[in-house]
Design brief:
alpha+beta, about 45% helix, globular
């Protein structure tokens, strides 16, 4: 029999094991929107359960442990891979209801229920993914049970079945075979199962293999959500995710929500418990999805991303950029003192570079949290800034799609003030949103105006290639200068000024009125002025071009075109 304390330690061990290898899993992700974050999503999802496990007493029953793990994973789930993982454990929790200890039969039945929950929640299950790995693992567990195996032997069979299924994923998904890799989500699940086996078999909780400094850094990393793990083509534009707080007086079946979403999109995942409904859908009409969700209760979190603008390989520069950032001495983090919410509205922003921080402060932000690409602030960092803003309604401008989710996590954590996240994905969007603020209007009106303003800005970026690669028809060499339009790689140059000019000109039309060139580390004032002069000579005279010394890392130029 497996005790509740053993299940608790098994979840800790599984979490440590995937955390140790999450970077390798990230590198396996090769789907059409190359997000490279499956390992991180799964690690953060089961990591939420691991944190809860640390607070459980060893006298907890198996049912109590499973329920606590499932609940925390549902709330902490990130991306499709994380949602599927949380569904597996939700089913396991249901299968272990009322159990103080776990028999071999209980273990197999619970895992089978988890697989059923996962398949049921995905509209068009694709074989060759984490779903296949979980299903085959459960089937092997059932075979071992019928041979009279004990719980440890059953889980050993589960792990072997998962490994065999993982090895076969390239035969089921041609895109995996072409890239010469196995499924990333399936690999993550194997690592979790193996970590759990170590406890069941020998009582050893595997270590995550990270230093204390790396663990602290991991806590602050909130990467991109999976945009499309189950499609080989992008059929719909918007990846829409939200959590609904269920109204106890509304007795509508969440299945109805799922059926509706299936009529307006694909990749539908709807999971629920007594308190929330967590939903994921790819659609052309995210507003329709949100309106349908409101029939069940209040929206707690909302995240909408345009997948067709994500066709670029951000991971190309990540490792080199992280290494460069790590070599720089980091200033000691200033402690922010909590403030009473006396004002009606206040603002915090995320930005890196002294120039950008000063600019946001000048526009009215009470606090600017240091962060951006390669240095994402944690939820705790953002929460501290919110509590240090003396306002009843605090607007957060993340200015980076990797930080939006961390910002959203602060909403339920604030009890004495309301948090409103304006999902700005770039610095220009954040600046435009702040300029749209009207102190004479209420929060709702300002929220709508700021969202509209952010959506009317085109963003160009000029950065560098961290290594050689082939991507999107481009042959990229280490050190090449990359020009991106709204997140999509368009130009490869040898000089950052030339790239800046090329990106900016491609945005400009006869209706363009304002262009802002924000130059960062590695760009001199002379180079910035050269870019401005060249553009003034090539664009119509009515365009106003402004230079800003942002001092930001990673990006030579951040370009705003309105």
């Amino acid at each position: 029999m497996i005790l509740g304390s053993q299940l608790k330690n098994a979840i800790l061990s599984g979490s440590n094991n995937i955390s140790k290898y999450k970077k390798q899993i990230n590198e396996l992700n090769i789907f059409p929107v190359p997000d490279g974050d499956t390992g991180t999503n799964m690690s953060m999802t089961i990591g939420a359960a691991a944190e809860e496990m640390k607070g459980l007493d060893d006298s907890s029953t198996a049912a109590q442990v499973a329920k606590k793990a499932a609940s925390s994973m549902l709330r902490g789930a990130r991306g499709n891979s994380g949602v599927i993982l949380s569904l597996l454990f939700r089913g396991i929790s249901k299968g272990l209801e009322g159990r103080e200890e776990i028999s071999a039969e209980d273990l197999v039945a619970a895992l089978e229920l988890g697989v059923e929950e996962a398949y049921k929640a995905v509209m068009k299950p694709t074989e060759g993914t984490i779903l296949t790995v979980a299903r085959v693992a459960a089937e092997r567990g059932r075979e071992a049970l019928e041979m009279g195996s004990d719980p440890v032997q059953v889980w050993d069979a589960v792990c072997m079945g998962a490994a065999d299924a993982l090895e076969d994923t390239p035969n089921l998904l041609p895109v995996l075979k072409k890239a010469g890799v196995v499924d990333a989500g399936g690999q993550g699940l194997c690592l979790i199962f193996e970590g759990m086996l170590s406890v069941f078999r020998s009582g050893i909780v595997l270590e995550c293999g990270l230093s204390e400094e790396e663990k602290a850094q991991e806590t602050a990393e909130f990467f991109r959500n999976v945009a499309a793990e189950f499609d080989s083509e992008i059929n719909f534009t918007y990846c829409t995710e939200f959590i609904v707080g269920r109204d106890p007086e509304i007795q509508k079946d969440p299945l109805e929500l799922r059926l509706f979403l299936e009529t307006i999109g694909d990749c539908v995942v709807v999971v629920d418990d007594d308190e929330i409904i967590k939903t994921h859908v790819h659609t052309e009409n995210p507003g329709d999805a949100l309106q349908a969700a409101l029939q069940y209760g209040q929206l707690l979190t909302v995240k909408i991303e345009n997948m067709k603008e994500q066709h670029r390989k951000a991971a190309e520069a990540n490792e080199a950029q992280k290494a460069a950032a790590a070599e720089k001495p980091q200033p000691e983090k200033a402690h922010l003192e909590p403030q009473e919410p006396t004002e009606e509205m206040g603002f915090i922003s995320v930005a890196a570079g002294d120039g950008l921080k000063s600019l946001f402060m000048d526009l009215g932000c009470a606090n600017v949290v240091s962060g951006g690409q390669t240095m994402n602030p944690s939820t705790e960092d953002l929460l501290e800034a919110v509590l240090a803003t003396p306002a009843k309604k605090v607007f957060i401008l993340p200015n980076n799609k990797n930080i939006i989710m961390a910002a959203e996590q602060t909403i339920p954590l604030c009890t004495d003030r309301e948090v409103i996240v304006i999902p700005t994905r770039t610095i220009p969007q954040g600046l435009s949103a702040m300029l749209a603020f009207d102190p004479d209007s209420d929060a709702q009106t300002n929220q709508e105006a700021m969202l509209e303003a952010a959506g009317n800005v085109d963003t160009g970026l000029v950065t560098f290639a961290a290594r050689d690669s082939e991507y999107g028809g481009h042959t990229i060499r280490h050190g090449d200068i990359l020009g991106l339009k709204n997140g999509k790689l368009e130009y490869i140059e040898k000089d950052p000024v030339a790239a800046c000019v090329r990106v900016t000109r491609s945005f400009a039309t006869k209706h363009t009125s304002f262009i802002t060139l924000i130059y960062g580390e590695g760009i001199t004032q002379e180079q910035a002025e050269e870019a401005k002069r060249t553009l003034e000579n090539k664009l119509h005279s009515d365009v106003e071009i402004t230079l800003v010394d942002g001092g930001q890392p990673v990006y030579y130029f951040i370009i705003s075109v309105e």
